[in-house]
Design a protein that fits this description.
The complex is a heterodimer of chains A (115) and B (112).
Chain A lengths: L3 E4 L2 E4 L5 E7 L5 E8 L3 E8 L6 E2 L6 E4 L5 E6 L8 E8 L10 E2 L3 E5 L1
Parallel strand pairs in A: 2-11
Antiparallel strand pairs in A: 1-3, 3-8, 4-5, 4-9, 5-6, 7-8, 9-10, 9-11
Chain B lengths: L2 E4 L4 E4 L4 E3 L1 E4 L5 E7 L5 E7 L5 E4 L2 E4 L9 E3 L8 E8 L7 E2 L3 E6 L1
Parallel strand pairs in B: 2-12
Antiparallel strand pairs in B: 1-4, 3-9, 5-6, 5-10, 7-8, 8-9, 10-11, 10-12
Classes of the chains: A mainly beta (115), B mainly beta (112).
Amino acid sequence: NAGVTQTPKFRVLKTGQSMTLLCAQDMNHEYMYWYRQDPGMGLRLIHYSVGEGTTAKGEVPDGYNVSRLKKQNFLLGLESAAPSQTSVYFCASREMDGFVNQPQHFGDGTRLSIL
Amino acid sequence: GDSVTQMEGPVTLSEEAFLTINCTYTATGYPSLFWYVQYPGEGLQLLLKATKADDKGSNKGFEATYRKETTSFHLEKGSVQVSDSAVYFCALSSGGSYIPTFGRGTSLIVHP
């Protein structure tokens, strides 16, 4: 029962390098989200997707790109990493809302340091 | 727009003490309300939820009641344990919005 799986769990990058964070969910959820969590800032939404092939910007999208080519996967890309992107990144997914709104399921996070 | 306000932490308690973490919200319509818990080094996990007024969500000894008249969803536990030390997030989802709204989180530290 994997739920939401994030890879990698830890990564150190140099300024200007690029990388992709992978999120995979096995619950057939329609909606997927990428957040960053910084001390004292709570959770901030970067991008989200409401279905395969769709993406939308959240609160802090600058410097990030995303893709949802398959329903179960949601990729977050950093084209040119900056020290301000040092953070813990969380992916979440949830079912399409029916009569009631559904909770989110979170991965365990990717701890990213940009030197 | 929607918003969630939580009491600032950290909240520091001794083991077996009573816990209350306040949460109030503003939202249009009739949102669903959630409490999530984040243990050190882990992601958020759903602790409990309530989907309509006067519903009481409960799990692992924690309880919260959906109070529409006071727009509140306070988290309570009668006797906390050291293992309850974590960050607690209050959140809501409104009908028609894809994006849940989270509070800033409240850190709970329980001493033996």
